[in-house]
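Researcher: Let's try something more involved. This one mixes different molecule types, so please make sure each is placed in the same coordinate frame as the others.
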Amino acid sequence: MISIEFLVTIATLAFVFAMAAQLLNLEAAWGGMWDLGIAGLIGVGAYSYVLLTSSPDAAVPGAGLSWPLGMLGAGLITAAVAALIGWPALRLRGEYFLITTFAFAEILRQIIIIRRDITGGTFGLTSIVKPFESQFTIDGYPYVRLGLTVLLTVIVWMVCSRIATSSYGASLRAARDNEPLAMAMGKRINVLRLSTYATVGLMCGLFVGPAYSWILGALVPSVFSSHLTFTLWAGLVIGGLGSRFGPIVGALLLTGASELVRLVHVPDQFADLHAAAHPALVGVLLIAVLRWRPDGLLTESGTFARLRRRHSRPDTARATPVSTPTVPRIAHEPSA
Amino acid sequence: MNPPRELKVIDVNKTFGGVQALRNVNMTISGTGITALIGPNGAGKTTLFNVISGFGTPYTGRIIFDGQDLTGLPVHKVARAGLVRTFQTPVGISSMTVVENIALAIAGSDLDYPWSPFLFWRKDRSRRKLAHDAAWTQLEQADAAQLGNRAMSDLSPGDAKLVEILRQLALSPRMLLLDEPAAAMTVNQIDTLSGIIRDIAQRGVGVLVIDHNLSFVLELAAQVHVLESGAVIASGTPAAIGNDANVRRIYLGGDEGTHAA
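Model: All components are placed in one shared frame. Result:
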């Protein structure tokens, strides 16, 4: 039986993924930084948040801060970690950057496992501070948590949206499209990319990590394996790289579909097959989308065509092609 | 006290592995008017262009522009110093329209930080509006307003070359380096292009143009430098260059045709 609590928890998880997929969209689709280490950044964010907020008397002692301060601190720590990783990694391009970020995420996860005095190791951290938990009943809290997560998703969407329409966003996409040209236009590519990567780290720590920890009973390193990274990538590709709503749509669809597979009841002898159906479904969904909509359900060109209308003026002289020679001529000097 | 308005290339050497691409290149390019750099394929024209614009560091030698030493500076600093180049393949910023390409150049780079859209949103918005208006004006003055809303990939090769020049001109350079602007152009288009380049020079922007097309550059330039096998073999007025025995040998072939690339 599908319980409503179960659906609410799945929806909350889906919105956490929607948040993370938007950040992946910012760095990978607009910034051209194909990051396979985003699970590592989310992990740093989640661990920082839990360690900053859990009480000093817990099994693994924390700093005992309030949850808003914990989120802020986690954001700053994750931004610093991202800057530290990005500084050497962003000298690399394309697949080399991809492999390096993948390795960094694995190293971070191994550090979490090894330093069990600080991180709880594979046993995990169990004293997770959740906002407003004490003000609500155990039955009511999942709805509050869902509301909070949706609110954070909307905030991330607004941040990404504003970036998309800004000069900064345009420069970021210019550097992705044509790096030599962007440099020749006076753009500082390295600063542009490093600051973007740190911003993604900031938001992973500020929003995604804490929100993820709220739905976990225990924070364990296996949550932040490459499986998380690939789930986010699959969601982003299904929804549409570069689109503003694409990552949200893709993440919700993918999480919904793959979690609901768990609800299908099968006899015990098929339990292993059933477990395998989970990643298989992700694969089938990905193939189906790429077969019929290679750019994803929504597209970057669609997003920016809508945003573009603000600047294109409906002037007939401009809207209709004029029958002048293909190469026009400078008739007189521009005044400015 | 103003430093001379000129680009000086001093004793530049550049090697790729065992190949010496540039040998002791010395030239002074006037900061006003049109200067041409010609030479056969593989002569080192594009290498010299890259060295000047920051895409490669010379092995030895210096690049001085308006009294400022640009040797070894990163590309964006060279561009911000007013020395702006175009590219041979005018693909532009492919995900943007023509007017957005030009507006991006006009808008400048001081709001290129992740916090700018949040701390300076009003400034950013009005800047983008002004830049788009200015970009439309620039397109209209170039008689190219009908290209404004087109995607870069939808342009004909000739139009793409024009947009390449207009976009880099929108960066308000003090000197514009044009990398083979006439390549892939028809005779009519080349005439139009010559008009555009003269117009740029008349506005006080120095122009350095490289091209294979001898008649195009000899007609256009006040000063011509000829490069062969990485070395300057002749410098002078178009008339002098047109009569230079070495240049004629390279371009027309002759008794000593063994060096022709």
